[in-house]
Amino acid sequence: MLSCRFKGYKHELHKYYQTFNSHDEACEKPFNDVSAEDWELCCQEFASAKFKKSSEANTNNRGKAEINHCSGSKSFARYQRELEDNGESVGPIEFWKKTHYTEKGWKTPTTQQLYASFFLFYFFFIN
């Protein structure tokens, strides 16, 4: 849990860093409640070749995902528990729809195809 919060905070720092036109400009304006010394270390990290390589690889990998969900940073277990706490009891197929479908539609074509497959399987073999 703590590591997730730190990861989210580091992400916010990096987003702030990216709002500047240059590394030097970013270094001059520390993020809220971050000391100038600590901000300088963060800027050095964000400008490092290792960080840039890792960041680019992660961006590319996220783009390759065929299945994506819409429950944000919540784990599926936490989301399921929240549904139960609100009096909603859903089966696995409906839970899939709740975590992969929004008012804009399915997150990816693959998620829609899998939902249809789950539904058909249930209809013909379980029901």
TrEMBL record:
<dbReference type="InterPro" id="IPR004252">
    <property type="entry name" value="Probable_transposase_24"/>
</dbReference>
<protein>
    <submittedName>
        <fullName>Uncharacterized protein</fullName>
    </submittedName>
</protein>
<dbReference type="Pfam" id="PF03004">
    <property type="entry name" value="Transposase_24"/>
</dbReference>
